[in-house]
Design goal:
With about 325 residues, the chain is an alpha/beta fold. Helices cover about 50% and strands about 20% of the residues. Helix 3 packs antiparallel against helix 11 and helix 7 packs across helix 12. It is globular. It starts with a helix and ends with a helix.
């Protein structure tokens, strides 16, 4: 308003006075708009990014433009672990997080690293949407100061191998690249493989040179990373269904009004189903593409695999003090 006064004194017109008054009336609503920062580690053609974009669109719509989201993809704000740490400090608002990467911050998040946790995709959905999902989210927030708004994910993980997988005997002695988590290493060692830690960016070359014989991955990323070019044998172990956490810093959450919190949660809930549906479609489309490009799929005796890992995994679950959550999950209808 002040910037208009000299001009008003010069012109003395009612029209300009009304125009400046209109700008003054509009200014508070424009000033009240708040930009929130959303970082994630994937590229812009992935389900990660499409789901984050959908969340931003829904939040802007539900808040009538008072809350907007600026997206930063491809780890430009740091690795997922670094972005999560920023959230614990209140320096980043939103992120999508692989729970396997935050076990140093949250003991509870380790529950998602246990293989053979879900019977099928329907069981997975019921776990995340039910009592178990709510309890896990509550504990992660208590442990980290980061709130879980929604559970994204939905890709099914398989075995990718340089050699055929006609039976479980073919797993014996396989140098299998795994994540360096106790449940994963314990389970795959019980199945006869030799779990091996290797940086993700080194996997393709590792398969080419024989440093590893295989890895664990979902169809979308097998296809994106072209792993099937050097490891065309895919065992349908379906030992895991991916979970990705849509998170908000507790400091950000506390700074929102009750109405804004409801708008954020509503946008998260709606984007959650969008993200899951998209990931499940991509998973199936990627399997079809892999078949067309020469990959061979092998059915695996999942029931026998679960029997083989049950005892050693049970010991790890108890050691990690995750028995109550594990029982809650497997007993979900």
């Amino acid at each position: 308003m002040m910037s208009c006064l000299p001009f008003l004194r010069r012109s003395g017109t009612l029209l300009l006075a009304v125009a400046c008054l209109g700008l003054a009336v509009l200014a508070p609503s424009q000033a009240s708009a708040r930009e929130l920062i959303f970082g994630h580690g994937a590229t812009e053609e992935t389900a990660y990014h499409a789901s984050a974009e959908r969340f931003g669109e829904l939040l802007k719509e539900r808040s009538n433009g008072e809350l907007t989201v600026s997206l930063y993809s491809n780890s430009v704000l740091g690795h997922e672990t670094e972005m999560f740490e920023q959230q614990t400090a209140g320096a980043l608002d939103f992120s999508i997080v692989n729970p396997g990467l935050i076990s140093e911050f949250s003991h509870t998040a380790s529950i998602f690293s246990i293989p053979f946790l879900y019977r099928d995709i329907d069981h997975w959905q019921h776990v995340l949407d039910g009592e178990a999902g709510r309890e896990i989210a509550r504990r992660i927030e208590d442990e980290t100061g980061v709130k879980v708004l929604a559970y994204y994910g939905g890709s099914t993980r398989q075995i990718v191998s340089t050699r055929p997988l006609e039976s479980l005997d073919d797993l014996k002695g396989m140098k299998l690249r795994t994540n360096p988590t106790r449940p994963v290493i314990t389970a795959w060692a019980a199945l006869g493989t030799r779990p091996t830690v290797m940086a993700y960016r080194e996997i393709y070359t590792g398969l080419q040179l024989g440093a590893i014989d295989g890895l664990l991955n979902e169809a979308e990323w097998i296809h994106r990373m072209r792993f099937h070019e050097v490891a065309p044998h895919i065992g349908l172990s379906e030992h895991d269904i991916t979970v990705r956490l849509l998170t908000v810093s507790s400091q950000t959450w506390a700074s929102l009004s009750p109405q804004q919190q409801r708008e954020v949660q509503a946008a998260a809930d709606e984007s959650e189903q969008y993200a899951r549906d998209l990931q499940i479609r991509l998973d199936q489309a990627s399997r079809d593409a892999l078949r067309e490009e020469g990959a061979t799929f092998y059915p695996m005796d999942r029931e026998r695999m679960q029997e083989m890992v049950a005892e050693p995994l049970g010991q790890i679950i108890d050691d990690m003090d995750l028995r109550d959550l594990f029982e809650m999950i497997i007993n979900t209808d």
